[in-house]
Write a structure and sequence with these properties.
The protein is of the alpha+beta class. It is 29% helix and 14% strand. The protein has one domain: Beta-lactamase. The chain is built from 12 helices and 14 strands. The strands form 4 sheets. It has a 7-stranded antiparallel β-sheet, with helices on both faces. Strands 5-9-6 form a 3-stranded antiparallel β-sheet. Helix 3 crosses helix 7, helix 3 crosses helix 8 and helix 6 packs across helix 7.
Amino acid sequence: MRRACGRLRGGAVIAVAVGALLAPVCGGTALGVPKAAALAGQPSPAPSPSDGFRMLTPEVKRQVDAAVEKVMRDADVPGVTVGMWTPDKGSHVRSFGVADKETGRPMTPDLYTRIGSETKTFTVTALLKLVDEGRIGLDDTIGTYVEGVPNGDRITLRELAGMRSGLYNYSQDPDFFKALTSDPERPFTPQELLDYAFRHPVLFQPGEKFFYSNTNLILLGLVVEKISGRPLEEYLRENVTEPAGMDSTLLATDAAFPEPHAQGYTDQTADGKVADSTDWNPSWGWAAGAMISTLEDLRVWAPTVATGVLPDGRTLISPATQKQRLDTPPTTIPGAGYGLGIFDVQGWIGHNGSLPGYESLTIYLPSARATLVVLLNTDIGQGDTEPSTLFGDAITKIVSPQHVFDLPAQPSGR
């Protein structure tokens, strides 16, 4: 529900940071000095190597751990798991804090988690597979497939995937916020979500500018279902996650949550008080944010979505189509480009995710073939910054100082 991305507040989504459902997206610029390490009392990292990623020595790992623990204290994060993997510079996986504040059960690397707007990378991958099969074209208009879309005869599938449609973001609608927070376990249908969006006028003409809108992905999910003739969750499983060997990743169709998982904590509630949102129904996010995954599966997904190549070397998305996905023109977010359902933030390719109670970040640095995954059990931010961004920023300032993942939230419109 939150940034990139997106977050709901007072009846509107606050900014989306990469991966948020209830808010708009975020972006950032690299900072010269690795502040996170300095604040944690650690020496500044040595100059970055030519591929942009440092060797994960015991000292670097200590610096990362200290920076993570400082963010946890400053942002009051209950639990977080961090994973880093490279082919030649080592790896580092560690969990911090608790998965359940009541029992004190520790956070562990094997937990299932809700990944929010990282779902967008899967939905768009499904779309691109249909493009590769010649069954649809990226420059087809959405009106060809879904009736009743404002400007539907002009908005292309490419503009929907690239967040340049001009359609209002349904999760920013005050009535939607009231409906969700008054009964967070209720189901929503895709059409109900579109109805919230389509009661608002278009914000701008197609292709005119970037605006992060969950509405775009609901429409693309409907396109995948119509052309494939399969429910979205089945198409994703059979054509995306199973070929990648991601057996613990699924599109949730109700509030069911595989075990083991962490409890999630949010303040995106009707009264603004912190609540346990573990069993809230994520159907309101559907193709934009309802997926569940694990650290190990996301480790696989990071290079797969960034390259279009499966772990066994087979092609998931053709090179020509993948090239179009990775065309990431600048956005309104400093330092961030957005392609077809994917961000490029200072060289890191991927997406963040957020919905009430959970946040995630899955990114890949092609120059070093390095993967970073961050999973946490709260979406309560610090000021205007997503907690996942705080961790991404602090970690990358240490391990890739030339490529700092900094994605500040944008203010939302009411």
